[in-house]
């Protein structure tokens, strides 16, 4: 009986051993049968991943494109706004210059013709005319000296003056700035001198009239060079290509950079101020850089 059980156990082991290759083949067959489905799943997952990556890339590109478009719109809006501001200030400058210039010409004519009276025997007041012309030149030069002193002492070092002038050293919003009030302030003595000189037919009156005209001419020139040429508040045309105007432009920009403690304080003689403190080589270098930038497009 024991022998029978042993034989039975060995028979089972033999059957199991014999069936193992068939089971292995069956498993491999099942795996092979499932392989196409698995491959399909993997392909579907890969396709889905590729689609997600493509969608993500498209979304990223769309976002970048939208940002670029928004920046372009803002840039175009700023350029348009700046152009409008320039046109506004330019119209104001042209109107003021035309009005003041016409008034000055008429006032000069009537001063030396009308005050002669109706008598044809009256001699033309050449001495008065020469005095007026001398003070026109003297008034203009004197205003440069006055502006140099006032710019430092009254507009920078004096707190109430700086309260207005600081707007000129900050980003401007709109076509005008608080610092423009100084143009009106400087116009008051010019108008007073011209009016007194026009109404006073003497040498003293002629000298005052010339001084008032000199201040007026300086103010007009200052507006076009300082506001237009240097700070680009309106286009100034070919005067930007004049060699000395380039030196004036660079010199005034050095004032705003405060590289030399605010020097130069004047405008038209600003290059001479820089040369006086030994900054002439720096001025020459910056002017050369300005000229190279302005001629760079023509070299292409």
Give the arrangement of secondary structure elements.
Blueprint: H1 2-114, H2 126-153, H3 159-165, H4 181-199, H5 203-230, H6 243-257, H7 270-276, H8 280-299
Can you describe what's shown?
It contains 8 helices and no strands. It has helices spanning 2-114, 126-153, 159-165, 181-199, 203-230, 243-257, 270-276, 280-299. Helix 1 runs parallel beside helix 4 (181-199) and helix 1 runs antiparallel to helix 5. The longest helix is centred in the N-terminal third of the chain and has 113 residues, at 2-114.
List keywords for this structure.
300 residues; mainly alpha; 79% helix; 0% strand
Quick take:
The chain is an all-alpha fold and 300 residues long. It has eight helices and no strands.
Shape designation: elongated
What percentage of amino acids are in beta strands? under 5%
Largest sheet: none
Total beta strand runs: 0
Please compute the radius of gyration using only Cα atoms.
43 Å
Number of helices: 8
- Structural class by secondary-structure content: mainly alpha
- Alpha-carbon distance between the termini? 112 Å
Low-confidence stretches: 2-7
Helix content: over 70%
Order of helices and strands: HHHHHHHH
Mean pLDDT: 83
């Amino acid at each position: 009986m024991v022998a029978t059980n042993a034989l039975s156990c060995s028979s089972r082991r033999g059957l199991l051993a014999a069936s193992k290759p068939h089971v292995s083949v069956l498993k491999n067959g099942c795996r092979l049968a499932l392989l196409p489905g698995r491959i399909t799943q993997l392909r579907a997952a890969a396709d889905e991943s590729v689609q997600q990556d493509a969608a993500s890339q498209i979304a990223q590109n769309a976002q970048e494109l939208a940002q670029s478009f928004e920046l372009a719109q803002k840039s175009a809006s700023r350029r348009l706004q700046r152009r409008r501001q320039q046109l506004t200030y330019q119209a104001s400058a042209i109107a003021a210059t035309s009005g003041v210039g016409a008034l000055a010409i008429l006032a000069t004519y009537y001063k030396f013709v009308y005050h002669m009276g109706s008598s044809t025997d009256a001699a033309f007041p050449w001495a008065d005319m020469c005095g007026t012309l001398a003070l026109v030149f003297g008034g203009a030069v004197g205003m440069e000296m006055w502006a140099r002193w006032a710019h430092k002492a009254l507009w920078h070092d004096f707190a109430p003056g700086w309260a207005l002038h600081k707007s000129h050293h900050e980003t401007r919003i709109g076509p005008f700035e608080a610092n423009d009030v100084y143009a009106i302030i400087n116009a008051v003595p010019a108008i007073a001198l011209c009016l007194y000189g026009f109404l006073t037919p003497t040498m003293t009156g002629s000298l005052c009239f010339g001084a008032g005209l000199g201040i007026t001419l300086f103010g007009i020139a200052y507006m076009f060079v300082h506001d237009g040429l240097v700070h680009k508040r309106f286009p100034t045309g070919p005067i930007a290509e004049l060699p000395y105007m380039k030196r004036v432009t660079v010199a005034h920009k050095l004032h705003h950079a405060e590289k030399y403690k605010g020097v130069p304080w004047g405008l038209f003689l600003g290059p001479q101020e820089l040369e006086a403190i030994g900054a002439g080589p720096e001025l020459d270098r910056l002017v050369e850089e300005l000229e190279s930038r302005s001629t760079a497009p023509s070299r292409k």
